[in-house]
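It would be a great kindness if you could assist me with a short task in structural biology. The matter concerns a single protein, recorded as an amino acid sequence and a row of backbone structure tokens. The record follows directly beneath this note:
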Amino acid sequence: MKKKKAKKVQKLSKKRVKELKERELIDGNTACAFAVKLCRVESVPAFPITPQTELMERLAEWTAAGKLDAYLNVMESEHSVLSAAVGSEMTETRTFVSSGSQGLMLMHEILPIAAGTRMPIVMVCGSRAISAPIALWCFTEDAEVLMADLSYKKISSVKEGDVILGMKNSCLVPSKVKKTFEHESNDIVKIKTPKFEIECTKDHKFYHHPTHTHWVQAKSLKNKELKWIGWGFDENAEYKKGWLKGVIDGDGCWSSVKVKGRKYSRFEIHVNDREIIERLVKYCIEAGFRIREHKYREKMGQFGAIISESKEAERFKEFLKENNGHDFCRGYLGGIYDAEGTGPYAKRKSIRIYNKNAEIIQKIEAFSEIIGLNCKKYFDDEQVAHLLISNAPEFFVKCFPATMRKRNNIFNSTYKAIKTKIKIDYILPIQEKKTVYNLETETNNYFVNGFLVHNCDHNDFLSCRDFGWLMLSAEINQELLDFIIIAYKVGENKNVLLPTLIEMDGFVLSETREPVEIPKQETTDKFLPALKLEAKLDVEKPMTLGTPVLEEYQYFKEQMQTAQANALKEFEKAFKEWKALTGRGYGFVEKVWMEDARLAIVMIGANATIAKAAVRKLRSEGKKVGLLKLRVLRPWPEKTIKKALKNCKKIAVVDQNVSLGKNGILYNEICETLKDEKKIVSNYIAGLGGKHLSIEDFENIFKDLEKAKSSEKKWLT
């Protein structure tokens, strides 16, 4: 056989290595929080709404710890939040707010007031669908949700206030159920795996990969491998026997004495956790053994149980003979962990079980392998074996230790520590109307039958386009951080003085960790001067702001239109200055292979990342396709857009929104911009309610566009 040539590994330059080391892996909410801190924001009126709640929590945490010198004021509603923001900004106090969906709708009365009074507030919109209907995907009643105590509960039985296991910043955390939903649907699929079947609405998203391009809809899961924390592990008779054997191997004591030639046996156990004794006594009684608790060591902080009858002790010993069955093995490991285990006490650390007995050490290794756990060992100076189990989340779900304080160690684990994967065999549509259920949780995700499951569109963000705010849309978390800093720079310019709304795709950017370069404080200070307002509330120089007017109303609106035009120039200056300081350059748009493109997609938001992948693929096949991603929507950069699309014959505007009764919102604006040019401009409504868009979807748009003889309007289903 010929030996395969080893691939050359491209060595990273020292400069590139340094750049990577300076980046932090953070989600969109955290990136926004860092930007707020860097901008030395002094006032943050807040009200929680998914998916920006974690942003407010991070700012509250930093404020409490003295890391952020700001006044964070929790209000009674989003209407109050923006009202308070206008008031604080009027006192020449740099102010930041965030909201989304129905929360942003509740702010609508105040949005034009903020712009009309020329208050340069910055707000992040965590975009998600506007109700109704509530855009939540659902499971049928038999689906089971993993609770924070590691038990499973039918989704139809989960109540508001229950605590489930969720994921936040890639860590497993307890998460409270904020709302439950129930309705009927006939748009259901059955997901078949080698272990079980589960039914849900076809668009429900499953976590497939730790990037925002890989929340995959149920209907597209065939042949995909998903991480699986475990499900379906009952406390059956074999599990109980295994757990008893494990905890007794760790802490139990068998003794026998001879009295007048007769042998008397006895079993006794002492542990530090009452929960172990309570479970042990319960399991023993269920198996038909006479056992009792004793309390003579409670003053020493120990709890005990005893079988004092000799024949009963011998019968119990015989009962505990081990086997290699899956349930016995996971029970045994749960028991030995209760007795002699610990950890993990930090992220990326392992569970540890300590023992000196060679036979027990061998059993732990063998049983771990049988149930699919990664177990390694080493010996310390005293020849005590340290057995390390790295896939801790699976251990806790499979082995279900008795001790709650030890089970809570799962919250020191990361999603990455889940090693087991299950391949989806097939997806089968179900032609039947069923009742379906869903949950809104603090983390925006939860585990169903062992899978992590998880909505956004841009209607909430784009509904604000006529209120006079500057508007930016981010594709990645780095843009989120940079855009907030740039927004303060431009908005506070004396020739602009307008608030800015920045779009962050909810449940996508908000929850996805990406490498982000966080600039130094001195860099931001050099770029962004202190806020100075000429029109402000000052007791030393009293003035009235927001006064009623009559015929002068139009004059004020003309001033705001002039300010929008000025913002175009100021954005150009700010983008250049920021690039000089950080090396990261931005423009009103991002052009991807647009120089010679004959077909182009125009869009905004995080799904542009997926569209770029489609463009790369088609370019490799020789197709002259391109992508125009809009970053700045207000002011509308008409000349830049016209120039970028100059050579394109056919254009597809992909709208993750819709102006009902008309078309997609971006489509209307692009058509107005290109009204004097003979081009085919088609509209595709896609991704509403956070519906997943794939590379294939964008490829199909290009194929469709290539065949188009005239402009078309379509809904991508």
Notes: The mean pLDDT is 91. The chain has four domains: 22-130+458-477+492-552, 139-225+421-453, 237-417, 589-715.
